Every structure is written in structure tokens, then in C-alpha cells.
Predict the 3D structure of the following.
Amino acid sequence: MSESLTSSTFHGLKWSYASNLVTVTLQIGVTALLARLLTPSAFGLVAMANVLLWYGQQFAVMGAGQAIVQKSDLSARDIRTAFTSSLILGAAFCALFVVLAPLAGILFPDTPGVVTVTRVMSLSFVIGSLRSTTEGLLRRRFAFRALALAQIGSYVFGYALVGVTMALLGFGAWSLVVASLCAGALPAVAYTLLCRNEVGLSLDWHSFKTVYSFGGRVSLSAFGQAVASTLDTVWSGHYLGAAATGLYTRATNLVNTPVNSIFITLSLVLVPGYSRLQHDRGRLRSVYIVSITMVAAIGMPLAWGMAGAARQIVITLLGGQWTDAIPVFAVLALAIPFTVLTQLGAVMCEATATLNVKIAIAAGRLCWFVALLAVLTRYGIVGIAVAFALSELINHIAYLLVMRRMFSLGPADLWGAYSIGLAAGVITGAALFGINVGLTEMGWPAPIILTIQFAVGALLLLGTITRARRGELWREIRGRLDQAGYRRENHGVAAWVIRRIDGFSRREAAA
């Protein structure tokens, strides 16, 4: 990447990660509160309606936002056409799902209320279509500060304020429905106001073909991914009911909140940068190797450490009524690093317009996931979690083979990229699980054990970052943070953390 592009990319990372840190903290707190105010059945009901709407959402905007980011020569007509067509599609899908909502009752026969919830939540199509093009524009010009502030504000307003208040007033599942719609509407309005001078109502056939020749393939690929990534929820809802699905989806969300949401931000920021380098495979190869090395080295110990501390996390955050979610949480945490690493390969395919491969893998993933679910559902929600984990591993291997061919990666390249994360992940997971077993047998309360596990996990992660390959990993991260403007003389929390890690790294090197 050029210096200016690198600076813009990591400036975007700074704001996106700051946003995610705040949002994740809010999510953990709000989730802990709502889990005590609402039943697993309430969460299961909304999850069932949400998953059906998510399928339609992939086509309601037809990849317009991604096309706006990826297109190298974007015109004003392209922007207005994408905005107008997205609104038309969003309104059409909203009406369609209102009419077809009774199908939700057929798919989930033991869940009363799912039809009504699906109809109300179909408003999310209009909200999503309003923000698709404008969010793509903001991402294209690296306006991640505005995106970050809108994300934080939307969660505070939608869930922390509206959702919790309605739950306290006894609205049950409807508190989640209204919270979701409010959280989506706020950024949609904010993005539109920020881009008001660029968007407008206009349709041009040439621009339509240009935008949707790419966006349509993105939607087809996204639909396959959406079906595969939510099939476990649909399967659980159909065969196991709302309560089991509520347990399963809460475990899923709890795993995703501190890990997946943070690392997926990496892909959202890197797509614009990757797209600008789409014709320079040499630089892309280097960026891809660095990306997977960093994500594996941080993501594997973080996620597998969560697996080792599964019991304490679930009991402390969700409460005693959610203990059946503990093994589900542990299994899903083991799979999360593969999901995130796969996302980097998928983003690379999107940035280089290699979408036919994404579509083929999505189709294959659906087939092997269905087969795994058919075999393992007999073991309840734990069996469904194992099916998901195995499916993610196979999916990751498929993308890894594609990246290996695209960039001529050899076994030594891959081992160098993954070895740090694998070793650190196994050590961290085993250490935290050992603490769990030992202190639980001694009768220590879960919050105290979790605090100790957090401290040990943080030290192990810090050691991995600063000591791996004699500090090479931290030097790579440090250099890229410097390019983003995180200098030692800067002020603020981020700069303070970096100075502390610098000091730790020097002491470790001297020792």
C-alpha cells in the first residue's frame, strides 16, 4: 500500500476498533441485563424471525453497498442509481415478507407469535436499503469516524435505552423487536444526512447494469453464506423449539460479541484498501500473509481462552438459568478463529472481484453443513454447535486452498502465518480450563474465577504479541500503528496502551 493509503486504512482501523470496543462493552452489559429480564423463549422467537429476514436482506439491497466500495471509477449516476434501486427493492421485500409471513409459522410450528414478529420486523428491509449505498460511500472514503459514532449511538439508543426500558416494563420479546428496529434506523438516517449531497432519486440503465453485475454476484454469494451461517438457528428452531433456540443463539451472540465483531471490523476496513490494490497481486499477497498472522496470533488465544473459561463467562454474564448454554459456548468459541480467518479470504475474493469462487464455496458449505446437522442434531443444541464448528473448519480449508492458489503460498508460508496463533491458542485454552477445574473444585465463585482467568489470559496474550519470534510480531504491529498515527508521544488511551506494551516488550527482550 502507498503511505497515504496505509495511513487511511489504519486510521479507519483506529476508529472502527474504538467503536467496537465501546459497543462490545455495551453489548456485554446489556446482554447480561436482558438475559435476566427475558426468557430464553423470547430470545428464540426473535432469533427465528430475524434469521428469515436476513435471508431476504441479502437480495433486498443486491450488494449495492459493496459495489460502491469496490468500483474503481464511480460516477454520480452510479451512486444515485444504487440509492434509488436499493430503496425500491427494500420496499418490495418489506411488502413481500408481510404477505409471506405465515410461512414462518409453518417452518416453526411450535412457536406462537413468530408470524406477527416477522411482519413487524420486515420494516428492517426499508431501513437496510436506506443505509446500504450511503454506508458504502462512507466506507469508500474511509469515513470510519462517522461510522463508528453512528454505531455506538445506535446501540445506546436502540438496546441500552429502548430495549432495556421496554423489558423492564414487561414487553417481553417485543422489547427486542423494537430495539432492533431503532438500532438500525438511527445510522440509516445519519448516513443519509452525511451523504445528502451525493444521493438522490434517479435511475440509469447503464449504471444499473454496472452496479448490479458486481452487486448481484455479491448478493448471491452472501445469500449462500447467510443460509449456511444461520442454518443452525433455523434447524434448532424447527426441531428443538424456541427455548432451545434461545439458549443456542445467546451462546452464539456471547461468543461473537468480543471476538467476531472485533475481527470482522478488520475486513470492513481492509476492503477499500484491498480494492485499490486489486491489480497488484504481489502487494496483496504480502498484506494477506500479514493479516492472517496477526489475526491468528490474537484471535486464537482470545477465542480458545474463552472456551476454557466458558462456565464462568456464561454464569457470570447470563445467570444460572443459562447453564445449558455452557457446552454450546465452548464449542462455538473453538470455531470462531476459523470463521474470522475465512472472512479475510472472502474479503480478498470480494476485493479482487473473484466472486464465482465465493459462490461455489457457499454452495458447497450449505451441502456439508446440512449433512453434519442431519447426523448430529440427535445430540441437541450441543450437536448443532459441533456441526457448525466442523462446517466452519471445512469452509476455512476451502478458502485456504483458494488463497494458496491465488498467491502461490507454500507450506512454509502457511505454517509461518498460523503457528504462533495455534501454539498460543492451545496454551491459553488449556491454562484457563485448568484454572476453571481447579478453583471450581475448591468452591470459588464464578466471578472471582473469571477475574483470575481474565488476568492470566491477558498476560498470555501480551506475551504472545511481544515475545513471538523474538518480538517480530509486535514490531510488525507497532510499525503499522505508527503509520496510522499512534506515536509514542501521542496522548489518549490507545497511545498509553502502546507505550505500556513497548515497555513490556523491551523488558522481555532485555531478560
Observations:
- The chain has a mean pLDDT of 80.
- The chain has one domain: 3-510.
